[in-house]
């Protein structure tokens, strides 16, 4: 398992179910993390930074060789979309649980991907690729920009996660934006090549999950809508898309299958599209790995995507029947961040971590109560996923689940997510990629409820008076032995 | 049962009252159930369960889907005073003034009581000293951040 955290837990559990023994790798600052307890063996890496640990191909391959591992699952992030790692894994005689290095390469370079898609008849966003990344390329880019038209988007060919990306609304902003995008791209990816796409405002982000096995079968599992994003990061994802029609699903599904086939894709992957208000859809990029939001597809299709990855990598045919979409699923991403303060990441102890329960609720997480949230890794704490027969009921369930979710000791975005569930575009399904900025142009703040604030003050003062923070020290009603667990806990860091 | 909590707007003094088994404050009441469960009855009739945890000096409280933080100010630690001036933690009305110019006060001695956010807030001396100025009288409105009185530290 060449990954950590939540996705490592997800995959290690699938391996356990399938009867595959597992080896986890673990950085020194990750020791004791939940995922290390779910593996049969743990190899402790050396090093402080992620470059020295989870991005260190030599160490990971050595761990595989030492333990006699036969396959490598890269999860998402880290080395999951690195063609050179896929090659190194295969050359070490191990099975790479993912697509071929050449498929990763063709999709990883965004300009090559656009050209490949165009050749395969998959619609791409109107725009132009420009070769070369020297100073002279800027002049060529500016000419191309005139042909594409404004507003437009500059994107780094090696880009991802919003790096090397600039929106340009007027021609006189162009030079500065292009230079900035290029600088950022060189710094982040060592590749300053930039291409231009027309900026399609009011569009939805709709992506299609695909699966391809080594027996020539390539299928799609329908769509996910992930329009609600902040700083190019998704926070609210759902399946099926609230405005999707069976005809459009079929058309987008076929385009996604064609995209996968064009690069001889094997395994699970996601083809991302922009769906314009006109109903036209355009290829954005393909993620050649399992995705964070895969659970919503699993809940509405009944397909265990990670188990299928394992089957496909083992050379077996995938087990899915015809596509059946049932009910509605919504996922929200819980981040350790201060939504009221520009979504700044936060750190701290998870003094209380009490997820909601009940029918139709799934929690994918890599943390548990008592863990410490550190600045070492991504601030995503958990994914809360709900399923219900209808979208309306799924949203109702999500509201209830978020209200029940208790995290104390670290600031999270739970209240922001809860507020989002009441926002008009979310309720009526008209979300677009700019929804969060449109709703809260000057930043989000929690609604004030004076009576609850006063009640919280009463609770704090009463708890202090009762000495609740000292309770665990005396062993009184810690709640682990009998009855439901106690709603309070303590890190016993300091007593008055 | 008095506690002082810090807020963005300055320290808030809380005086809990006991009503049978319940603690009350501003018409809200709290009872402790088995296993440490805290049950709140709000003054508008709502009931809710509170989850609480103390991390360092801060109480984290979850109720009704909301999470609040109240940092407890330890008795004797410095609070409102920056340069000897005691400022209003929030806009409100002066209810009581306990000192006059020239008085010598001990740390923790109540100086003034403000009413704000429907709560009474006691302004206490953060250290021993001599009152050199009192800027507001009973019944006067104060703006947030207004200097209420000034104390010269005892050396």
Main features:
heterodimer; A: 496 residues; Rossmann fold; Dna Ligase, domain 1; D-amino Acid Aminotransferase, Chain A, domain 1; 4 domains; four-stranded antiparallel beta sheet; 17 helices; 35% helix; 22% strand; disordered C terminus; B: 155 residues; 2 domains; nine-stranded antiparallel beta sheet; elongated
Most extensive interface between two protein chains, with residue counts: A-B, 52 and 49 residues
The percent range for helix content of chain B is: under 10%
Instruction: Give the name of the CATH superfamily of the largest domain in chain A.
Output: ATP-grasp fold, B domain
Main sheet of chain B?
9 strands, antiparallel
Task: Write down the overall mean pLDDT of chain B.
Answer: 84
Chain-wise SSE layout:
The complex is a heterodimer of chains A (496) and B (155).
Chain A: H1 5-18, E1 23-26, H2 34-38, E2 41-44, H3 57-67, E3 71-72, H4 83-91, E4 95-96, H5 101-108, H6 110-119, E5 127-129, H7 136-148, E6 152-156, E7 166-168, H8 174-189, E8 194-198, E9 204-212, E10 218-230, E11 233-239, H9 246-262, E12 267-275, E13 281-287, H10 294-301, H11 305-313, E14 328-335, E15 337-338, E16 344-345, E17 348-349, E18 352-354, E19 361-365, E20 372-373, E21 380-388, H12 391-404, E22 406-408, H13 414-420, H14 424-428, H15 435-439, H16 450-466, H17 471-474, E23 489-490
Parallel strand pairs in A: 1-2, 3-4
Antiparallel strand pairs in A: 5-8, 6-7, 6-8, 9-10, 9-12, 10-11, 11-14, 12-13, 14-21, 15-16, 17-20, 18-22, 19-21
Chain B: E1 2-7, E2 10-15, E3 17-19, E4 22-25, E5 28-32, E6 38-41, E7 47-55, E8 58-63, E9 66-73, E10 85-87, E11 92-97, E12 104-105, E13 110-116, E14 119-124, E15 129-134, E16 141-142, E17 147-153
Antiparallel strand pairs in B: 1-2, 1-9, 3-4, 4-5, 5-6, 6-7, 7-8, 8-9, 10-17, 11-13, 11-16, 12-15, 13-14, 15-17
């Amino acid at each position: 398992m060449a990954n950590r955290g939540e996705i490592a837990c997800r995959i290690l559990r699938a391996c356990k179910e399938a009867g595959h023994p597992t080896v986890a790798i673990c950085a020194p600052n990750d020791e004791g993390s939940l995922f290390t307890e779910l593996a049969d063996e743990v190899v402790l890496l050396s090093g402080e930074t992620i470059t020295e640990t989870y991005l260190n191909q030599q160490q990971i391959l050595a761990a595989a060789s030492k333990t006699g591992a036969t396959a490598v699952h890269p999860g998402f992030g880290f080395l999951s979309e690195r063609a050179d790692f896929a090659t190194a894994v295969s050359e070490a005689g191990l099975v790479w649980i993912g697509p071929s290095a050449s498929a990763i390469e063709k999709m990883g370079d965004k300009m090559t991907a656009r050209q490949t898609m165009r050749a395969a008849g998959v619609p791409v966003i109107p725009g132009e690729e420009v070769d070369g990344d020297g100073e002279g390329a800027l002049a060529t880019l500016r000419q191309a920009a005139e042909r594409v038209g404004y507003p437009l988007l500059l994107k780094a060919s090696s880009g991802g996660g919003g790096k090397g990306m600039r929106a340009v609304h007027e021609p006189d902003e162009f030079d500065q934006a292009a230079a900035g995008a290029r600088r950022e791209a060189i710094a982040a990816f060592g590749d300053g090549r930039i291409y231009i796409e027309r900026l399609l405002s009011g569009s939805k982000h709709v992506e299609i999950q695909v699966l391809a096995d080594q027996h020539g079968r390539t299928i799609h599992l329908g769509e996910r809508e992930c329009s609600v994003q902040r700083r190019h990061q998704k926070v609210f994802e759902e399946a099926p898309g609230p405005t999707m029609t069976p005809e459009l699903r079929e058309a987008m599904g076929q385009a996604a299958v064609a995209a996968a086939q064009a690069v001889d894709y094997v395994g699970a992957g996601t083809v991302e599209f922009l769906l314009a208000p006109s109903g036209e859809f355009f290829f954005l990029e393909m993620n050649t790995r399992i995705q964070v939001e895969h659970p919503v597809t699993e809940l509405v299709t009944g397909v265990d995507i990670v188990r299928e990855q394992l089957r496909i990598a083992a050379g077996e045919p995938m087990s899915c029947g015809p596509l059946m979409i049932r009910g509605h699923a919504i996922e929200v991403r819980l981040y350790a961040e201060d939504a009221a303060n520009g979504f700044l990441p936060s750190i701290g102890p998870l003094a209380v971590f009490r997820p909601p329960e009940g029918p139709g609720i799934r929690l994918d997480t890599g943390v548990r109560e008592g863990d410490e949230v550190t600045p070492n890794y991504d601030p995503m704490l958990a994914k809360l996923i709900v399923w219900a027969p209808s979208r309306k009921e799924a949203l109702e369930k999500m509201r209830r689940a978020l209200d029940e979710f208790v995290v104390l000791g670290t600031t999270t975005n739970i209240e922001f997510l809860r507020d989002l569930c009441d926002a008009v575009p979310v309720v009526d399904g008209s979300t677009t990629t700019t929804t969060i900025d449109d709703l809260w142009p000057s930043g989000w703040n929690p609604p004030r409820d004076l009576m609850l604030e006063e009640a919280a003050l009463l609770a704090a003062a009463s708890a202090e008076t009762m000495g609740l923070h000292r309770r665990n020290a005396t062993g009184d009603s810690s709640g682990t032995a009998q009855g439901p667990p106690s709603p309070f806990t303590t890190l016993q860091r300091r007593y008055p | 049962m008095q506690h002082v909590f810090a807020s963005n707007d300055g320290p808030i003094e809380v005086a809990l009252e006991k009503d049978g088994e319940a603690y009350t404050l501003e018409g809200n009441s709290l009872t402790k159930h088995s296993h440490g469960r805290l049950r709140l009855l709000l003054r508008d009739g709502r009931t809710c369960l509170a989850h609480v945890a103390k991390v360092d000096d801060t109480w984290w409280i979850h109720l009704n889907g909301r999470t609040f933080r109240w940092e407890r100010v330890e008795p004797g630690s410095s609070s409102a005073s920056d340069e000897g001036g005691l400022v209003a933690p929030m806009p409100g009305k002066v209810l009581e003034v306990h000192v006059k110019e020239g008085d010598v006060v001990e740390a923790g001695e109540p100086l003034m009581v403000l009413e704000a956010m429907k709560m009474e807030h006691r302004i206490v001396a953060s250290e021993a000293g001599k009152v050199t100025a009192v800027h507001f009288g009973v019944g006067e409105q104060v703006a947030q951040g207004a200097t209420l009185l000034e104390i010269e530290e005892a050396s």
